[in-house]
Amino acid sequence: RDLRAQGLQTVCFTWRQLQAATNNFDEANKLGEGGFGSVFKGELTDGTIIAVKKLSSKSCQGNREFVNEIGMISGLNHPNLVKLYGCCVEKDQLLLVYEYMENNSLALALSGNSSLKLDWAARKKICTGTARGLDFLHEGAAIRMIHRDIKTPNVLLDADLNAKISDFGLARLHEEEHTHISTKVAGTIGYMAPEYALMGHLTEKADVYSFGVVAMEIVSGKSNTTQKGSDDNAPLIKWAMTLQQKGDIMEIVDPKLEGEFNSLEAERMIRVALVCTNANPSSRPLMSEAVKMLEGEMEIPQ
Ligand code: ACK
Question: Is 33 in the pocket of ligand 1 (CB under 6 A)?
Fold first, then answer.
């Protein structure tokens, strides 16, 4: 907790400032909804474009996540993490102010409901960027942490298609939980590592699993999330494993890429995704190793 307090370097915004910036939280400025409330686009008087996360209610859980999020990311500076500019706690309101990310989330970009086309170069950059951001959280930051909710809606894209990890509301300090069994499992179905989902066993390797799912979604253009009514936990990952056994792994590549991809790099991304989603956490690489594997600087285990 001391470490967290020392890391607090955020700016305090006034309610009036944020009200003016978002045109009184006008619906037209709404970027979307998260589990915690709404996100609005705004502009500060100096012209800085911001994204304001507004907590919907003063629910206990919401409050806890809000305070957690400020503590977690204030003072964190990395090109692949969404920058927190500051917060506002006036008028019973809890608001977080972030840098604005022009190209929304990776989930939207991959869904086909976006005008954005992700070519191979963009996908490679997004995948490596996400890996670097996560590696920084795990090992590079002064305060080491586990994100716990790595998924494509939490990977945002800036104007130059740089990937930045957002939503630190569920993040935990490394030391806090990695030695014991967590009683309350939080995360998203389709991205949760089996040992965490089933036994609450939380280590940084749970994030590595989630990253593997994200990487597989990037290369395939498909979602790993279960269809309603199905009891299949990880359809995309299972399909990839079947293809690997048959020696047809390249079949997973997004047909929309139509040959523009570099097959060596695509195969690398698939194999990294597979090793990261290994059922055994100790067989998964560290994120620092995953970065090197993606860049071809380290051999990928079979
Ligand atoms: O996919 P989206 O448009 O991108 O929908 C979600 C929504 O708000 C709820 O999280 C968007 N969002 C979140 N943070 C930011 C940000 N810093 N810049 C731009 N959009 C954001 C996210």
Answer: yes
Closest CA to 204 of 156, 277, 163, 144: 144
Structure tokens at 50: 């911001």
Q: Are 288 and 255 a contacting pair, CB within 8 Å? A: no
Distance CA 142, CA 275 (A): 28
The reported pTM is 0.89
Predicted ipTM of the assembly: 0.95
Which among 269, 288, 158 has a CA at the least distance from the CA of 220?
269
Helix 235-246 × helix 204-220 angle, to 10°: 70
Q: Is the CB of 29 under 6 A from ligand 1?
A: no
With a pLDDT cut of 90, the percent of the chain lying above it is 59
Give the separation between CA 17 and CA 14, rounded to whole angstroms. 5
Q: Among 63, 70, 9, which residue's Cα sits nearest to residue 37?
A: 63
122 lines ligand 1 (CB under 6 A): no
Sign (positive/negative) of CA torsion 259, 240, 118, 125?
Answer: negative
Residue nearest to atom 8 of ligand 1 (CA): 32
